Amino acid sequence: MTTGLQARLRQVRQHSVALVEPLQPEDFCLQGMADASPPKWHLGHTTWFFDTFVLKPRLEAGAALAYTPADAAWGYLFNSYYDAVGARHPRPERGLLSRPSIEAVLAWRQRVDGALELLLSGGAGQLPPCELALIELGLQHEQQHQELLLMDLLDGLSRNPLAPAYGPAPETWYEAAWGNGQAGGSWLEHPGGLVEIGHGGAGFHFDNETPRHRQWLEPFAIAERLVTNADVAAFIADGGYRRPELWMSEGWAEVGRRGWQAPRYWRGGADRPLEGQEFTLAGLRPLQPAAPVRHLSWFEADAYARWAGARLPTEAEWEVLAPRLPQAEGVLWQWTASPYRPYPGFRPAPGAVGEYNGKFMSSQMVLRGSCFLTPAGHARPTYRNFYPPACRWMAAGLRLAKGPADPISVPDSPAA
């Protein structure tokens, strides 16, 4: 009998393949920058995860499993950052991997899917809870890469003078997500006090969402609506990208070094930005003033907030008000003022999978919510996304906050 996990396996794995159906053969090795990865690499890496962490250990344990692992050299090609597993191909050179072919990678995916189906059907013996949890982690990991695949494609296609389109679907998702209009300009207030944040433990969550713990918050308020293109156009018109007093020192250096004058994919209209266009996965589109602004770095979000006489919310503030925030999820990831650090009492998982989140807890800032490219069912109010503050190729926006900040973490006592 098909289990719920089997159904999820089929849906998630098939969705990855569906996402690349609009691509041309030349697109599968497209890598526009060192931070991005080609579509073929995403398909291979998400398959390597199951091959390495689920199937090979079962074979090594003597399971009767009709599965032949990929050539060992493929592990070198498709490992991302798991140092405990072994060496890996340099990330900036993933676009040079013309071999294995996309046909070979897709055939490998089919073999892995067949072996996983056999495992979940009980054909290789009953799986213990820890292995079921590992398969679920692999599916959640693949959903992360489905979102990344599209954001990486947007970056790569944007560098082509022909401004080619991936297809209309993602932009349709975006327009449906923000609904051609947002809530009014009011603020949602919170009295502050001792609050709890973090995942409670029931259901899937990544390790960085735990442990649930207490934080003290001073009274604060968060804006109902996300900052819009029109809002940022006013910031630009007021010299926002030319005023160093609005920027963190490192951010101001990025403005000069990279020549930032507007959000990442705005095109033309330097003097009248709202008369310009925005490059999207559907190609060039007229900039919509009422749409939430997207593809801002943390530095830009922070500078805009300062210009607006406000600030970014902390991740604790965002989480406690998330149930009341319009469009908290499904529109854009939202920058917070919080550095990506471990929660009090955090312990990474043992072994190589412990490298999944914990090793990145420095030099990055937290984003909350999810975006229009996030697969359905993948978001949670406790989800902690994270990127370096200069990155702006992600589908990231912001909402404003005001009031005292800088909460103090209070670990739970053993008896709590």
Account of the protein in words:
The chain is α+β, with helices and mostly antiparallel strands and 416 residues long. The protein has two domains: 4-164; 173-410, paralog of FGE (formylglycine-generating enzyme) (Alpha-Beta Complex), CATH 3.90.1580. Helix content is 34%, strand content 12%. The chain contains ten helices and 13 strands. The strands form four sheets. It has a four-stranded mixed β-sheet with strand order 10-9-8-11. Helix 1 runs antiparallel to helix 4 (102-120) and helix 1 runs parallel beside helix 5. The model is unreliable at 406-416 (pLDDT under 50).
Largest sheet: 4 strands, mixed
Pick out the low-confidence regions: 406-416
Give the overall form.
Answer: globular
Total DSSP helices: 10
Helix content: 25-40%
CATH topology of the largest domain: paralog of FGE (formylglycine-generating enzyme)
- Please report the first level of CATH classification, the CATH class of the largest domain: Alpha Beta
Overall mean confidence score, pLDDT: 93
Into which percentage range does the β-strand content fall? 5-15%
Q: What is the correct CATH architecture of the largest domain?
A: Alpha-Beta Complex
Reading the helices and strands in chain order gives HHHHHHEEEEHHEEEHHEEEEEE
What's a quick, concise take on this entry?
The protein has 416 residues and is an alpha+beta fold. It has helices spanning 4-19, 39-60, 72-78, 102-120, 129-158, 169-178, 229-237, 249-258, 298-307, 315-321, and strands at residues 187-190, 193-197, 213-217, 220-223, 266-267, 277-280, 283-286, 333-339, 365-369, 385-387, 396-397, 401-402, 408-410.
